[in-house]
Structure formats: C-alpha cells, structure tokens
C-alpha cells in the first residue's frame, strides 16, 4: 500500500496532459481496480485498432487481394456475402472480449488476490466490446465509402487516433460537457465502471451508432462498382 501511495503522489506531480495521455486521470492506482482501469485504456485503444482492421477487411479484403471476381460472381447477393463477412468479424470481436475476461480472471487467480473482481472484469469486457463495435462498424463504413481500400483503412485508423486525442482532451478539461459524446473511449468512464455502473445511455448510443454505420455500409457497398477497383 505504501508503494501505491508513493505512485499516487508521484503521478500527482506529472503535468496534467501526461496524466491524461497515460489514462491515469480520475483513478486511484493504489487500488487494484484503478490499476486495472489504466491497463484497460490501453487495451481499449488496441481493441479499437483491431476492430477497425476487422471492419475494413470485411469490406475491402477482396479488393486488396484482387479476388472479388471469384467471390462476388457466386449466386448470392452482395448484401448476403457482406453480411456473412461482417458477422465473422463480429464473432472475432466477441471472442476477443471474452478472452480479455477469461485471462483477467486467470491473472487474478495466479496473483492470489483475495477479492472477487469478476464483476469488474465483466463490465470492462462489455465496454471493450461496445467500443470495438463502434470502430468496427465505422471502419466498415469508411471501407465501403472510399474507392481505394487503403484510403478506407487509413480513415478508420485516423478515427481511432482522433477519438484518443479527444479522450485526452476530455480528461484535461474541467467541464468537458458534450465532448464525451464524440469519443467512444469516454463512453464508459473508469469511475463509473469501477463502482458497478455501465452507462445505459452510452450502451444504447454504441448500438445505435453501429446500426446506422452498418446500414449505410450496406447501401454504399450495394452501389459500389467492384470492377472499377
């Protein structure tokens, strides 16, 4: 505990932008829950990058590999093929979140911590999946909207970077107001998740945004000229 107190005092002396960039704002890293929350910020960012890769790849893989003539000449509609590819990506994303939960539980058991953190891990894993879902669907939308696959993938990665910058700005501002709505990395605040609350509003917002992004993805993909890629 003395080491935790020392780290807390040390971090309090860091510039605010450094604390915000490291994800240590508004958490007590002297406690395991706060320390885990800081780790989860980095995992959220990695998940967003992975989800963006999955979403972009689900739409544009055949364009990159120049194999669209093989797949899209099958007696199936574009919507049918795209839906199966997106579903496969969602399965990977769900498995990723489940593995995060499982390995978190195994790590606690290995460390021999006395308290039960299963609820904490489950809430953070749910938040991880929802955040990943937003970036997955947004990257799919970009991939369907850009004629050049690399441009769509780049836009998805830039969206992740932009959301992270806004998350840092959110932690630096005393009254960020509506800024929270523009960065999925702050839809589920550490303090709320640690105390047992996963925001229903932002859960619904994640689902709504993902639904809209995917619907637009299908519309854009249906109108896409695959032969011109």
Compile the SSE list and pairings:
Elements (H helix, E strand, L loop, with lengths): L1 H11 L3 H6 L10 H34 L2 H4 L6 H34 L6 H28 L3 H24 L17 H5 L5 H23 L7
Helix pairs in contact: 3-5, 3-6, 3-7, 5-6, 6-7, 6-9
GO molecular function: ABC-type transporter activity
Keywords: Membrane, Transmembrane, Transmembrane helix
Pfam family, one: ABC2_membrane_2
Which ranges are low-confidence, i.e. pLDDT below 50, for 5 or more consecutive residues? none
Count of strand segments: 0
Query: What series of H and E elements makes up the topology?
Result: HHHHHHHHH
* Tally of separate helices: 9
How helix-rich are the residues, as a percent range? over 70%
What count of domains describes the coordinates? Answer: 1
What can you see in these coordinates?
The chain contains nine helices and no strands. By secondary structure, it is an all-alpha fold. It has one domain. The N and C termini lie far apart (59 Å). Keywords: Membrane, Transmembrane, Transmembrane helix.
Label this structure with key terms.
229 residues, mainly alpha, 9 helices, transmembrane helix, membrane, transmembrane, ABC-type transporter activity
In short:
Helix content is 74%, strand content 0%.
